[in-house]
Structure formats: C-alpha cells, structure tokens
Amino acid sequence: MHDESTDVTNGCSKVRTGTQNEAALLALMEKTGYSMVQENGQRKFGGPPPGWEGPPPPRGCEVFVGKIPRDMYEDELVPVFERAGKIYEFRLMMEFSGENRGYAFVMYTTKEEAQLAIRILNNYEIRPGKFIGVCVSLDNCRLFIGAIPKEKKKEEILDEMKKVTEGVVDVIVYPSATDKTKNRGFAFVEYESHRAAAMARRKLIPGTFQLWGHTIQVDWADPEKEVDEETMQRVKVLYVRNLMISTTEDAIKAEFNKFKPGAVERVKKLRDYAFVHFFNREDAVAAMSIMNGKCIDGASIEVTLAKPVNKESTWRQHLNGQISPNSENLLVFANKEDGHQKSLGKSANLSIRLNGQQSPSPPEIERCTYPFFPGTKLTPISMYSLKSNHFSSAVMHLDYYCNKNNWAPPEYYLYSTTSQDGKVLLVYKIVIPTIANGSQSYFMPDKLCTTLEDAKELAAQFTLLHLGKFNNCFKEALCTAVPLPPNWRN
C-alpha cells in the first residue's frame, strides 16, 4: 500500500496516509463481512459474498467501470455500486505503486441489477468534475486465430487446437467469399471458460507458435453483442451469410418470397452477406427455419435473426453517453466477427484486418513526381474520370465510390470524448443518404483518434470496409487511433 492517497469528504479532497487507507478498507470488510484479497494486479472484494450458496452469477451480471480516479478505493466505490443491488464480487485493477489503474469490474447477483447499475451510474459524478463510465462486461471465451492455411477444414482446425490447448469447445470457420471450398485464412476458437481462453492465448501469443508450419496470429475475438430476449422477440429482419458475391438482391428476395409471396419487404446485400427485411415477424421466423442451410447459386447459406443494437448502451459504451443516435441500426450479423474490422490497435505497421483477417497488401500506389516542362499540355479533367488506384486517401476513395454508384456524397458527423489523461479523442460517423434507409444506416469505427484528419480517414476506411471496397485501397491502420478499453465496446 502506498503512503499517501486522497480522502474525500463532502466533496473536499484531503491527503490521507496508507495507514488510514488500510483502516478504511478494514472497516468496510468488518461492516459488510466480505473478504478482500489482492493477486495478479487486481484486488478482489467478495466473490462469493458471505453466505453465498450455489454457482456464481451467469454471464451478463458483470459491469465494466472506467475513468475511476486513481486515488479512490473500495471504501468509496462499493457503497456507490451497492445502490444498484447486491454485489457478488468487486475487482479493482491495481498498480504496483498502490494506486488503482482507473478501472474495475463489478459483478452483481442478477442481470437486472447489472442493467440498473448501467442506467443509474454511467456518467455518474463520483467526485466533483469526475464522471465514471459504466457498461456491461462479458467474459470473453473466444480467440481469433489468423494466418491459417486456407485449404484446412473445420474438423482439421478443431483437432489441431484441441491438441495444443485445453478447454476447446468449438471452432468457427467461415468459407472464402470467392471460393467456398477454402476458408478465409482465420478461425475463431471457442473455449469452455474465459480462463481457458486466456491460458490458451498466453501459450499461443508469443508469435513463435506454428500450426502446420505457419506462424499464427492470436488475439481476443470481439465478443458477441448481448441482446435481451424481449427485444429479440420483436425482430423481423434476417441475417443471411455465406452468399456468393455474384448473387443479387433480387435473387435473394425471390428465394425468400417462395414460401410466401410478398412476405419480404426489402433486401440489403453487402459483399457475401445480406439483411432480409420482412413485413411480419412470423414470416421472418418461418423463413429462417425453411431457408437455413438452403442453397442459393450453389452456396449453402446460414440464416439467423439479426440482432438489433441496444442504442442507449451501445453509444454509452463507445463514447461515454455523449452521442444520441437518431437512426435504427442492426448488428451486421449474429456473430460480429464476420464483417467488422478486428484491429489489434498496437502499432502502425499492423495492416488493418478485414473480417478479423489481416488484409492482403495492395499494390503500392505510385507517388513519384515528374518535372514540369514549358509547353507541356494540360487538360482539365474531373477527379471522377480517374481510376480508383489514383487515390491514396480513403476519404477521396469513398467520395469517388459514391459518385461512381450515383449516390449522394458521404456526410461526416464529428463527435468527441475525453480520455483518462485529459486528451480530446475524436470519431466521425458517416451517413450516405442514398443508402441510409437500408439496414446499415450509418458507419462509425470503434476506435478514437487524436487528430481530426486521422479520425476522418479512419471513418472512411471503416465505411469502405463495410461496403466491400477496401481491398484495393490502403495498407496500414492509423497509428494515432486509440482502441477503446477492454470490454468497453460491449
């Protein structure tokens, strides 16, 4: 325990000693009956609480707390979070110096208590001018494994992962968008617990581990979005994946209308997946049962209900409640991985990974300059008469792509938040009015930037990725993009 910290009484700060800190924590333990132990960079209060019988609470009962003042401890934090319900376990992340690391995990005994904590404590002013962020936290049991040979089948990958790691439950492998006989060069490995996944990641992550003679890439997969059952009962949109690139929206609509003519309202296809909107939920559920596993243009499709975004919690998680979204949006699919950027967020020399996969390096854009000689003839042209390989900027490429498709120009909307160290972080939301009435009504990356130019470029890159037009554009992620904290996105 360090020698000095801050005690807060009636909003006023004063220095208190390490002995006073210990006394305050001991008083909390005596009052509540909870135990407290510090290990592996975190201090656990409870887990289980006194008198608890049975298994721990299920998934969805834990919340992530960010932007905690570094000199604030359980004696101040626990009473605040007890307002939402009974705490099963409070885990405060600790520095070696004795300060906290600015974030914690609070597990309640029920999901309802966790949701209440998010509603009443997100953006709560825990000290004068100090606001905490609270969102749902999910134990991630899934790893991303990249650089897998594309000819390997699911069974081969599953057997190999079971040989080298423990606790493997399943492997998720997606077929290539252009060649259904091959995988996309990556897989998602599901483990029986977060601990099993963490142990496997620790074993595989050094970068020297090989599968079938290939050095693999390993990272946490982005967790699935949790959507409450009541919301899912209202969904009347289907997510359809594993389509052929050549399959048209009209062909998809015709296939899904076969079981009941006129049931489909509209179809929005993006690359090899699509959203099928129905007029009635009953028709959507029936079509899902009938069409799942059917072949369209020679491809066996997978059909699930599209998961709606919980707009309030999603935006709170992304930007600490400073954005009020004004349009309906749907998750791109039931499993987020297949179509969203999965970024390591570690260094600029890491190529952006598409669909959880490292993108192939496109040809280097020729950027040489040439001398201008007197008498050289210059011809006025429009930028839209050029080819896409003339653009090195994602912003320019997106503008060009919209013009080429006779769409309205992209509209950029700027938002900001503040990091724990006081930096202003920026993010753009892009709306393309022509397609805004589709299932993907706007595009926003899940990373924040420190400069306006980088934020705009990243947003354009992200939008192009979702439009399936990223493969010929850019090589590197922006080095100034700041990934959101662990579990903050969910």
Q: Please, how many domains?
A: 4
Helix content: 10-25%
Q: Biggest β-sheet: count, sense, barrel?
A: 6 strands, antiparallel
Terminal Cα span: 32 Å
State the strand order across the main sheet: 3-4-6-7-5-10
CATH architecture of the largest domain: 2-Layer Sandwich
Q: Give the number of DSSP strands.
A: 28
Q: What percent of residues are in strands? A: 25-35%
Q: Count every helix, treating DSSP H or I runs of 4 or more residues as helices.
A: 11
CATH class of the largest domain: Alpha Beta
**CATH fold call of the largest domain:** Double Stranded RNA Binding Domain
Mean pLDDT: 76
Structural class: alpha+beta
GO molecular function, one term: RNA binding
InterPro entries: HnRNP_R/Q_splicing_fac, Nucleotide-bd_a/b_plait_sf, RBD_domain_sf, RBM46_DSR, RBM46_RRM1, RBM46_RRM2, RBM46_RRM3, RRM_dom
GO cellular component, one term: cytoplasm
Main location: cytoplasm
Gist of the model:
This protein has 490 residues and is of the alpha+beta class. The protein is built from eleven helices and 28 strands. The protein has helices at residues 18-32, 74-81, 111-121, 154-164, 194-204, 229-232, 249-257, 281-291, 311-319, 394-404, 452-466; strands at 4-9, 12-17, 36-39, 42-46, 62-66, 87-94, 100-108, 125-127, 130-131, 133-137, 142-146, 168-172, 186-191, 210-211, 214-215, 217-220, 237-241, 264-270, 273-278, 295-296, 299-300, 302-305, 353-354, 357-358, 411-418, 424-431, 447-448, 482-483.
